[in-house]
Write a structure and sequence with these properties.
2 domains, Rossmann fold, single chain, about 170 residues, binds S-adenosylmethionine, 6 helices, 4-stranded mixed β-sheet
């Protein structure tokens, strides 16, 4: 990770041998690569990362490209909506939710591969469909702790009470 951070300063981020990545945005603190995690994680060498922190997409609920349209336009980010996992356009049919579960299992199984044994994987999610027990089990992650947090002011005051969980997992 240190190596990735160091090499990411400047416009290009191609610090991983054999993997072509470029930074969509970078500062002295590090770089942001806008990539399809299904495609890119699988190419990375084992134990590339020290930990993973993620807030995965909600299945069939939010059009993230629309929600973050300002950011895409202000930062000149490439439109990657065709790569979205669980896109709103696919809806929440059984088939669509199953595809989401399979994709998230693939993402975490790939991430597992790039982490040392026992490394932390922190997942922020509101798992109202109770999909994550299967996703964690199938991708080789063990839940250590579930922290519930109240979220009511993220994008303005929310009408109802909204809670999300922080799933503190480790690679099993
Ligand atoms: C719940 S949001 C979290 C966004 C951000 N981490 C935050 O907290 O504001 C889920 C994000 O996953 C992104 N996403 C969906 N499919 C993806 C994929 N295949 N590869 C990478 N990111 C993806 C969505 O575009 C969205 O920005």
């Amino acid at each position: 990770m240190e190596e990735l951070g160091r090499k990411s300063r400047g416009a290009a981020w191609t610090g991983i041998p054999g993997v072509k990545l470029s930074a969509a945005y970078s500062t002295d603190l590090g770089a942001l690569a806008l990539v399809d995690c299904l495609a890119v994680l699988a190419q990375l060498p084992d134990e590339t990362f020290d930990l993973v922190i993620t807030s995965p997409p909600y299945p069939g609920l939010i059009d993230y490209h629309e929600q973050h349209r300002y950011s895409y336009e202000l930062l000149g980010l490439q439109d990657r909506r065709a790569d979205e996992i669980g896109p709103a356009s696919r809806g929440q049919s059984r088939q669509a939710v199953r595809a989401y579960v399979e994709d998230m299992i693939a993402v975490f199984a790939n991430a597992h591969q790039q982490l040392a044994a026992g490394a932390p994987v922190i997942i922020v999610v509101n798992d109202s469909k109770e999909l994550y027990p299967e996703i964690l089990e199938q991708s080789g992650l063990r839940l250590e702790e579930r922290l519930t947090r109240h979220v009511n002011r993220r994008t303005g005051r929310r009408a109802g009470e909204f809670f999300e969980d922080v799933l503190v997992c480790v690679t099993a």
